[in-house]
Amino acid sequence: MSAKLDLDAGIINACSAAANRIAASVASEIASKTTVSVERTVVRLLGVDGVDELDAPLCNVLVDHVHRQGQLGRGIAYWLGNAMLHSGRSPQQIAEAVAADELDLCALEPAAEQAIANRVRAECAEHLREMTARIEERHELRERLGAVAQSAPLRYVLTATGNVHEDVVHARAVAEAGGDIVAVIRSTAQSLLDYVPYGPTTEGYGGTFATQANFRIMREAMDEWSRANGRYVRLSSFCSGLCMPEIAAMGALEGFDNMVNDALYGILYRDINIVRGLIDQRVSRMINGYFGVVINTGEDNYLRTADALGAAPSVTASQFINYQLARDSGVPEQQLAVGDAFEIDPTVANGLLLHWAQAQLTRELFPNCPTKYMPPTKHMDGNLFRTHAADTLFNLVTVATGQGIQTIGVPTEGIFTPHIHDRVIGLQNVEYVFTAARDLGDEIEFKRDGLIQTHAREVLRRAHELLEDIAETGLFQSIENGVFGDVKRRVQDGRGRDGIVAVEEGYVNPVIELMSETVYA
Amino acid sequence: MRREANLAAVKPYADHLDDGLMQMSFTLPVPYSLAARQAALELVAKMGVERAEVVHSQRLADGYTHFVMFGSCRHTVDFSVLQSEGFDLQYMSEEEIEAYAAEYIVRPVVVVGASTGTDTHSVGIDAMLNLKGYHGHHGLEGYRSFAAHNLGSQVSNQALIARAIELDADAILVSQTVTQQDLHIHNLTELVEMVEAEGKRGQIILVCGGPRVSNELAKELGFDAGFSKGTLPHHLATFLVREVVARRQSR
Question: Of B61, B123, B135, which is closest to A173 when you measure between CB atoms?
Fold first, then answer.
């Protein structure tokens, strides 16, 4: 699709440069620190699974065991590697022994540092190789079953019954109605748990717990549907909250294709400590990037909590920052879906044109990214007929601006967690508009200096100012000032702060080592 | 001459008075088939819908069929008695609250909230306070007229009160979700006693909420108000801004 907005390349480059400076200063703020969730992720990627008799995940038991003794600064891998050298036992067996109170990792005689690092690195490399092989198989399947029917924008549909088995029923209906990606929304407040619940779950509020067993149940059901119907259905979940990197690891283990993964979402909307959130997002995104998972950022949320027109520059600015932070974590452009949403108040005159300008702007600023477009929700209410009408316009802008991924609009969006037929009705609207206006984007140009071009340039201009400002004051201070979504967070506050650990001399983390080598090679 | 509706026996209106016509949309967990269609017709007949028609039906997935139907409702309701029963107690909207607070309070109303005791459920307090809010309604964090501090879950009564005093809070908000063996009543009573012991009961508005907390129970335990299931942030906000203004006027 050709460029339509006549944007100033100089300003775009200046935005990228400012985002670069912002990301670099974040990197230095979070350097030499790890978190309990990053360490639990290492444990997971060393093959540890399961829970103790109190249902506490073994990776928590293990990391807490070392953290309580103030020894996590060496990295959990150091202690695990040492124990492996001592006993010849696997990480899983060691975790079980610690859970049974039969083993104190910190009391063992320390082996030579290099021997420990080598042992645990070899173990980790083996697991990553196995996972990579499985994921490559999956990508082949996706290509084989995807080439025929799938064309962009991909239709991203949520399910959120609270019961994983009901989610399977909804997902099948979604698949049948043309959905390309199914995302199981998480249960309320899961993001505040500093552990990942275990096993299949059938009770949840506003969503279904993201557990590895639930991931597996969904994956099996969708694979079965994909093979039977000759069309691959992707799965997505949420790398957010206090377990961002662990969920990335779980998604990779269970063959998920997409993940919502925003650098700032948890900080702004779940009051997670800034430093904790930024360390976790970096490792989380590194894992997503490594395993070929497409990430969706969450700028749409700013438009819900602040006025959509006023917040437009902060969305564009955040897209640049999210993009740069993700690139720095090793996420390739084609796996990086920056977010935007159709959230302008429906009573605004020419709102459609303003949406069109903003959506086109995102496409032109990030031409190699899939970009993710979100439906109207903030101003949607019990009048589901009006919501359905708004969704039609939303679908039109989506197809005409060539968004990579569209979270579909559902008529009952503003009322409750939509019911099974509501999602199908939403998908039918999408199908109608995507078909009827398929090549619209190629047919139209915008009037020179008209309303659409002018609005897009103005948003970009103000985004640039904002980015220079953030680069000047620093991201942390900007968040404290409430730049994003009108939410203010202070670096010394927020949840999960006690899970940040300063890295000591001799820190061992084979996951980051191995992934950085591959990603930056 | 046009007939007037009989308010003692009202039924749906679509095209003509008392035609009783309703539109319905629902899914049955049965395979898409003629039998499914019949099942839908029989179901709405049992609901008192006469002369029903399936105007649209479609397969959603194996074993699930969606229907759109019309039919005439046989039942009526007596509107005349309902009219006189005072259903029209109204909460202010978010905009109205902001305007009201800007005019009568000026400074932000400081609210400190938590889910107390061992209760790990922050869903209630988050719904009321967090920006994301609930059902598309902002929590108090999203209001200009409030400075909301959500301390999260598993907060001790002591910590909650200390923070409220530190912030010179106008109101303390407690959420209790777990109610096994009346745990919530113990926690709530203790909070009131501790606030009284601090000599702050007169200054601080005490509000509690939870699925099994009613306004009646709250008042019995010494709170100013209680909010139960179905409460939206603007309901709570309405109470708080009115209460702050009322207290100032009575001072």
Answer: B61
Q: Which of A4, A156, A372, A422 is catalytic?
A: A372
Does residue B11 have an active-site annotation? no
Q: CA angle A262-A322-B133, nearest 5°?
A: 40
Selecting from A173, A268, A271 the residue whose C-beta is nearest the C-beta of B150 gives: A271
CATH code at position B162: 3.40.50.280
Closest among A92, A80, A41 to A242, alpha carbons compared? A41
Residue B29 above 70 pLDDT?
A: yes
Residue B68 structural domain? 1-87
| Residue of A180, A257, A300, A391 marked catalytic | A300
Tens digits of residue pLDDT in A41-71: 999 999 999 999 999 999 999 999 999 999 9
Question: To the nearest whole percent, how much of chain A has pLDDT over 70?
Answer: 97
Write down the number of H helices and E strands in chain A: 20, 11
Q: Nearest residue of A to residue B65 by CA position?
A: A421
> In chain B, what residues touch A347 (CB-CB under 8 Å)?
none
Which segment of A109-118, A198-207, A385-394, A494-503 scores lowest on mean pLDDT? A198-207
Residue A286 and residue A280: Cα distance in Å, rounded? 10
- Domains of chain A, earliest start first: 151-454 (3.20.20.440)
pLDDT band at A521 (very low <50, low <70, confident <90, very high): very low
Closest listed residue to residue A283, CA positions, set A31, A4, A5, A88: A31
Kindly state whether residues B29 and B11 are assigned to the same domain. yes
Question: Considering its fold, how many domains does chain B have in total?
Answer: 2
From the list B132, B200, B219, B229, the catalytic residue is B132
> Chain A: nearest CA to B152, how far in angstroms?
9
The model's pTM:
0.83
pLDDT at A497 exceeding the cut of 90: yes
Rounded to the nearest angstrom, the minimum Cα separation between A89 and chain B is: 36
ipTM of the complex: 0.89
- A192 interfacial to chain B (CB closer than 8 Å): yes
Closest-CA residue of B relative to A304 is: B132
Between the CA of residue A383 and those of A12, A305, A357, A390, what are the distances in Å?
40, 21, 27, 11
CB contact under 8 A, B136 and A378: yes
Q: For residue range A301-318, list pLDDT tens digits in order.
A: 877 666 788 889 999 999
Q: Which two tokens stand for residue A35?
A: 């978190």
C-alpha torsion sign, points A206, A209, A210, A213: negative
What CA–CA distances, in Å, run from B244 to A22, B112, B237? 43, 15, 11
Question: Is-catalytic flag, A269?
Answer: no
**Cβ–Cβ below 8 Å for B131 and A381:** no
State percent of chain B over pLDDT 90.
60
Q: Give yes or no: residues B152 and B244 share one domain.
A: yes
Q: Does A488 touch chain B (CB under 8 A)?
A: no
